[in-house]
C-alpha cells in the first residue's frame, strides 16, 4: 500500500488504532502524555483543527506547515509514545497498526463533516456525552482558554459558535435516529 505524501498547506484527517484493535491508552495520564508528545513533535510542523483520543484509537485533523519534516515528526511522536507505553505496561512489540492513516480533506464541506465526526466519536463508540468528553477538542473550541487549535478558523468555518454547536447537535441526533432504524 503506497502512503499518500503529506503536502504543505494541505489538510488531512490522520488516524490510527491499536494493533489488533487493542487499547493504546489505559489511563487519562496516557492520553495527557500523548497530547504532550504531540505538541513536542508536531507543533512546528502542523496546525490542528480537531482531535479525539479514544481508548483504542485516535483522530486528528491537521494542516501541514512543514512538508519536509512532518512525516518524520509523526514517526518520532508515535515511536516515543509507543516506547513509553510499552515500558509502563511491561509489553513489547507494535502498539499501533502498521502506518497511520491519512485522508486529504479536499473541500470545506468534508472538513466540517470530519470535525463533527471526530467530536462525536465518544457518543458513537462509548455512548458517552461528546460535549463533556475530556480528550476531544470540542470543549476547547467552545472555551476561551489559550490553545494551539485553529479555533478562529473552525468557528469561521461553521459561521459562528452557535452554528458550530447546532451542527454538532443536529448530526448527533441524525446519527442517533439512523442508529435506531438499523
UniProtKB/TrEMBL annotation:
Xref: InterPro entries: Transposase_17 (IPR002686), Transposase_17_sf (IPR036515)
Protein origin, superkingdom: Bacteria
Family matches, as Gene3D superfamilies: Transposase IS200-like (3.30.70.1290)
Location of the Transposase IS200-like domain: 7-121
Protein name: Transposase IS200-like domain-containing protein
Organism name: Flavobacterium difficile
